[in-house]
Amino acid sequence: MNLKNLFSDIEKQIFGKEDIEIKGLSYDSRKISENFLFFALNGTHTNGINFIEDAVSKGAVCVVSQEKIENIKCTNVVVKDIISVMATVAAKFYDYPDKKLTIIGVTGTNGKTSITYMTESILKSLNTDIAVIGTINYRYANIKIDAPNTTPQSLDLYKMMADIVKHGIKYLIMEVSSHSLVLGRVLGIEFDIAVFTNLTQDHLDFHKTMESYFEAKKILFNSLKSNVKKKQKFAIINIDDIYGKKITENIDKNVTAISYATKDEKAKCFAKNIKITSKGTSFDLISVYGNSQIKVNLVGLHNVYNILACIGICFALGIDFENIVKNISNIVAAPGRLEPVNGNKDFSVFVDYAHTDDALQNVLLALRNISTAKIITVFGCGGNRDKTKRPKMAKVACNLSDFVVITSDNPREEDPNSIIKDIEAGAKETGKSNYKVIVDRKDAIEYAINTAQKNDIVLLAGKGHENYQIIGREKIHFDDREIAENILSK
Questions:
Q1: Rounded CA gap, 1 and 158, in Å?
Q2: CA distances, 79 to each of 68, 141, 142 (Å)
Q3: What is the pTM of this model?
């Protein structure tokens, strides 16, 4: 595509040739080829301006920046907001692929990954292809891409959506993180269905306040007003959550709201008579679309909420009630979400991604419902992240577990001992002494498993599906599941 056409409706200054053909876009100099355009983004640890020379040497014919670059050997386009410009240019370059898809965006603190997996399961049961973009990976048409971020950069998203369209897939469900909404990663994308799960404390290192965190989530629902597709838009909202009610009260009049709940009987999808056992969960679905008893092999009240959200999505997609009920039993749990570890022992070991106090509480309450034996919890907190949730997680762990092993998670550039000190402050506030500190995560897991007795449950919380640990800026291989299996095999 011609450079002049790409930037025709964008405020900019162009230094150098305008009439040049652009064959590709990238913000990573390592991925530049001949006749590419390079976006010199400012990263967390690096500045794209430092990689301009590398990009040009590999074939970049144009560099987009927020300041004029002197002595550059190609065209330089200077813009005020490079993030929004990158989204606009990517949309045009890839011929607006979002307009050719039905796009479901799932946001909230907890449940996003599980809901995408559940929805994917139901649509596959109905022989309908759907692409998924989320925390664990990006997948479609037998393609799987590791996910460095829950929501990719706008340029990557548009490129991926174009490929999804090329493969003939009509549906895309994606986790939409609060970071992505604030940082402009989903700018310009026209969502058809937006899902709100809940809002509990997380990411306050980034958002600073809960109100700011909430405002970030609202961006997704405000975007439903855009309707180039001229299709009915839907908002699927958990109205048991106080923030969910606030979103419902402010939904655009042209958007159809489908509420779900286990407490508020006014919800359009309501679950009552909930029964949770070690083998699964059942409840009566009361909805404006029909009533039925639902039985699944998943455990926990949090999964009831996830299932209700999934059912709401299916209603919005126009799937008839009978097909939803018929196929709901086929849903699968996301990896690392109360995932059992094989060990052939007379006690159980589970791995879960719970990394907030609310998520940890949900998981521990679910385990309490399926066992009267001891629960031994291993958990830590990530470094360079919200410090205020550390003591809160400790309180939940100590109050709902019989014994807790406080350990390291992804310390990043923080001292693990300093992180643990913050966690331990919360443990001390409970007045209990049912915890032990073991900084090395492998040693902590081994201690917990060796402590377990018949019928006990060991919960390894915080990392779930992750197969790495971040120490400093280095990512090393570390998988709770592998570690636990190796210990159990001994």
A1: 15
A2: 9, 37, 38
A3: 0.87
Domain map (residue ranges) of the chain:
3-81, 97-330, 339-489
How far is 63 from 52, CA to CA, in rounded Å? 7
Instruction: State whether the Cα torsion 116-110-303-257 is positive or negative.
Output: negative
Alpha carbons 150 and 50: distance in angstroms, whole number: 26
Cα gap 208→178, rounded to integer Å: 12
The phi, psi pair for 40, rounded to 5°, reads -90, 80
User: Largest Cα–Cα distance in the chain?
Assistant: 74
CATH class, domain 97-330, is: alpha beta
Helix count (H) and strand count (E) of the chain?
A: 16, 24
Would you tell me which CATH number, out of the four given (3.30.565.10, 1.10.3720.10, 3.90.190.20, 3.40.190.10), belongs to the domain 339-489? Answer: 3.90.190.20
CB–CB of 132/138 below 8 Å? yes
Q: Which of 358, 353, 345 is nearest to 395 (CA)?
A: 358
CA–CA dist 435, 253 (Å, integer)? 52
Q: Say how far apart CA 193 and CA 146 lie, in whole Å.
A: 25
Local confidence pLDDT in tens for the 490 residues of the chain: 999 999 999 999 999 999 999 999 999 999 999 999 999 998 766 789 999 999 999 999 999 999 999 999 999 999 999 999 999 999 999 999 999 999 999 999 889 999 999 999 999 999 999 999 999 999 999 999 988 888 899 999 999 999 999 999 999 999 998 888 888 889 999 999 999 999 886 655 555 687 888 888 899 999 999 889 999 999 999 999 999 999 999 899 999 999 999 999 999 999 999 998 877 899 999 999 999 999 998 988 999 999 999 999 999 999 999 999 999 987 877 889 888 898 888 999 999 999 999 889 989 998 988 888 999 999 999 999 889 999 999 999 999 999 999 999 999 999 999 999 999 999 999 999 999 999 999 999 999 999 999 999 999 999 999 999 999 989 999 999 999 999 999 8
Statement: 3-81 belongs to CATH 3.40.1390.10 = yes
Task: Quote the radius of gyration of the chain (alpha carbons, Å).
Answer: 24
Total Cβ atoms within 10 A of residue 319: 18
Evaluate whether 302 touches 110 at the Cβ level (below 8 Å).
yes
Count of residues in the chain: 490
